[in-house]
Amino acid sequence: MRFLVLPLLLLISNKALACSGKIDNSKVMLFIDTNFSDLEIETAQRAACKRGEKLVVIPKNYKEYTSQIRVVEEKLKRLNRCKSNCEPLAQDYAAAEIALQTKRDSEGLLKDLIAKELNEMKQKNVKLTNMLLSGHDGGGHFGGYKGSISRSDIANIMEDFQDINEVSTLMLLGCYTGVQKEIAHWKGIFPKVRMIGGYDGSAPLSDKPMGHHYLEDLLTKEKALLQQADEKQLNQFVRANIRGLHSMHSAVYLEPVCSEEEDSSLNAMYYGSLTNRRFSTFDLNQCIGKVSKIKEIETRFKKFDSGEVEPPKNPSDPAIKTLYDQARSLEHCIEQLESPVDVNAIFNLRFYEAVKENFATFYKDELQTAQEALDSFDVTSAIEGIDREIANIAEFERKIEEENEKIKNDPEGYFFNLETLARAREHELQQMLNDPEKLAILNKMQNPNYKSSPEDEFLYDRYTALKEEINTIQSKQMYKESPSFLISHNNMSASMRLYELENSKRTLQTIKDNAVWLPTHENLKKYSRKEMRENIHKISDLLTLKVLPRKVRLSLDWTVRAKHEHLTYFQNPFEWHEVTSRVTPPENKISMGQTIYAPSSNPGYQFGFGMGTFGSGSESGLFSIPGL
Questions:
Q1: In the chain, what are the domains?
Q2: Is the C-alpha dihedral spanning 437, 442, 448, 451 positive or negative?
Q3: What is the pTM (predicted TM-score) of this model?
Q4: What tens digit of pLDDT does each residue of 408-419 get?
């Protein structure tokens, strides 16, 4: 009998998809499936049949994914059950996942498939009456086995198809899709929508019957729902007719109307499982009463973000999940009240272990290059160089005194000579950057792995020296109207010189003592978030030192920028919330070095600023040029 199970299921499935009712092919219910939603699609097919609408699924060949997805999930289960000698199982799982990803890549992006389908509908004068999106959600973003699509993607697509946008019902089948902020955004994309159904917390898995009942009842009883005239009638109706509404993290937006002439948005009602668990007026101005709750969220967010409290390793840990639930449900108020709470950051902190793993995997080559540069740095020689400067501190102070005398005795002549020197240095730098061959070499030097010649290194050293000198001159020119302030500034620089050199030695010692580290797989597992943030501060201190070799400076500068982008501000792909064999590239990949432009090709060009890799604050310009 067990061999009859699969054919029986297929027979049931085919019957479920069959429709004996009359279908109006000019009205389309579009189901966008990013994950593995076969049973939800069957539910939508039954509802479309009852509504007399045509169901179109994107991707159209969604059934072809089913067997491959099941293989991936089965191999993952075996891997998770494995206790020892698991490498062969890991390789099997990776191979299956790559095969699935290869198929997905060959099909094309979901947003392109959607646009193509809508264009065909437009050519046939077909209207889009309802839309369903299903998948993992992370704040206006759906993703899964079959690809990903964001709310902004949908908005951009619908801009080109406003004439067929008749969507009255929108079903958002993913976690946190029905929070009030999302409702407001989706209303802007689908202005004629009367009902939006989703979830304000975790959504049920796509194979759970309760979710299917909820979906089917909303779709098939939409008209009856919209005819309920007041809150009492509406709440009585849904309790008797919408299965699953009160048993899950359901969230529903409705615009019931009594007459066609009414502005339906004035009567909007909202049900949220994390708010009041009953339909009431949808009013975004209620946020003023949520100030204390948002302050509490802010306090807990800052503790996790700063590392005062380490983010839990398990994303289902109540400490972080409850915080995320509350932040998502009040996201509209967080924005309205201009709270510093970053809901996207809380999402990434919830899945922090996966985010770190994906970061280290995606940037493994850059991390290796940076580690090699750091290991090759002769810290002892650099410290000895500083010791020599300390020994000659008296000479430095003497030159400061000479400069101050020139300022005091002939301020007009001093600043005239300063301006002349500035023009000469700017001209030299401009000539260098307008030389295509030299500019090409300087940009190659932005790569720590570039095999440079002594001539290349000389060119780069001169380039950085010119930038540094121009910055210093510009800072001094600011005192032209108040020469006495420049003298005071120089005296302060002289008095602070010894302290700065001693501090530079201590900063360099952190490298020698292995007190700074790079965010590799091993280190991100070994160190806490608080330790990581402290480590980045140490690296930033190192970048203020002029003694760093090119390769080390480029590598450490990259480390700081990459860490801030992905582990502080969390500008990461939604897919980074789980570990996969192939990491989704971020929209803004952080590259080592920065492009150097010729002045003539950069309209915003200003000498001494924005030219190369010194964006770390290493060139403040607050030091003197003896001899002026």
A1: 21-63+109-282 (3.40.50), 288-350 (no CATH), 362-601 (no CATH)
A2: positive
A3: 0.73
A4: 999 999 999 999
